[in-house]
Hints:
69% helix, mainly alpha, 8 helices, single chain, Four Helix Bundle (Hemerythrin (Met), subunit A), globular
Amino acid sequence: MTNREMARGYFAQADYRLQQVERAVQDGQWAIAVRQAQECVEQALKAALRLVGIEPPCWHDVGEILRRARSRFPNWFQAEVEKLADISRERGRHRELSFYGDEEAGTPPNEIYREPEARRALEDARVTCHLCRRLIYPEEGATDERR
Length: 147
């Protein structure tokens, strides 16, 4: 299997998760939206790394790997690496909290997250998927008509 095929397989999972984030926001499931957005961002960025021949690490925030690999990407994507690395870090910060809540305080996830955070998470996932789609599917051009 080629790097492109692996990247596209990873990206298909990210794209599906993006749909789940959109649905969770529509349904008012704020914590689920935040969690799925993190998984979406992680999978999309790992697809980008696969595309350029980098085996993604087993941890969730791959922002620093993106930064170190910046020169492997096309110039237009290099210009977006800082933004994507910041998104990866921010979404990663919410991974466990959005799933388990604050166990020390006894606060479940659905009491921690509200609509504004879920919408920020959705926007981060959309931006990440848009840029990674453009990288992984260059034959589609710069537009993303589905989003």
